[in-house]
Amino acid sequence: MKLYGCGNTPNPRKVKIVLAEKAIDYEMIELDLQNGEHKAPEFLQKNPLGRVPVLETDDGAFLTEAIAICRYLEALYPQPNLFGSDADDLGQIEMHLSQIESDLWFQVRSSWKNGPVLEQRGYQVAPEAKVFSDENVYAYYEKLNDELADKEYLATSRFTIADIILLVSLDFAIHYCKLNPDESLQNLWRWHGFVTARESVGAIT
Ligand SMILES: N[C@@H](CCC(=O)N[C@@H](CS)C(=O)NCC(=O)O)C(=O)O
């Protein structure tokens, strides 16, 4: 299979970590987003929305949306399990995944879309929206820090898709939006160091 992405952009990164966790062989096709390769007619045939990641399956089908691709990979390669193995496990993982997507990633995206980098590139931004989303991100860091007080991993006793989505969201917030968790949030930083040390994560950062 082939994965179309661009460096360590966050959505392709989610898929790359899942591929590495499951030790799946694939070919990486790098696109130059800065130069609009993802909007070229040839790529729009693969994803009419002009976004990455896109997975080209061995059957020649094209899948888009990072989480959908990750679920497809889990169904094809069930081990190691990342999305849940029984009802309780699945419920916990899905709950955390949903919270990270809506309460953290959504806010981080708002800070990015209304921040200085896109403004410098000529996009219309709403700096007042960034003030609110920044505050929400910092408040959520505090909640995460409390939640991780006595846990190694976010959702269950093992590394799951919830950890992957949190890690990618947090790294994007730190490296691209300058939204650093305060040094005092030691549980969050401990978790970050712990999951960053995994081979599947280290291999692509
Ligand atoms: N909902 C999609 C979002 C994909 C997305 O926004 N990808 C970014 C890179 S992380 C992209 O292609 N941006 C270029 C653009 O939107 O033009 C997913 O979950 O995969």
Automatic annotation (TrEMBL):
Signal peptide coordinates: none
Record-annotated GST C-terminal domain positions: 86-205
Residue span(s) of domain GST N-terminal: 1-81
Sample GO molecular function, one term: transferase activity
Family matches, as InterPro entries: Glutathione-S-Trfase_C-like, Glutathione-S-Trfase_C_sf, Glutathione_S-Trfase, Glutathione_S-Trfase_N, GST_C, Gtt2-like_N, Thioredoxin-like_sf
Xref: SUPFAM superfamilies: GST C-terminal domain-like, Thioredoxin-like
Family: Belongs to the GST superfamily.
PANTHER family attached to this UniProt entry: GLUTATHIONE S-TRANSFERASE GSTA, GLUTATHIONE S-TRANSFERASE-RELATED
Protein name: Glutathione S-transferase
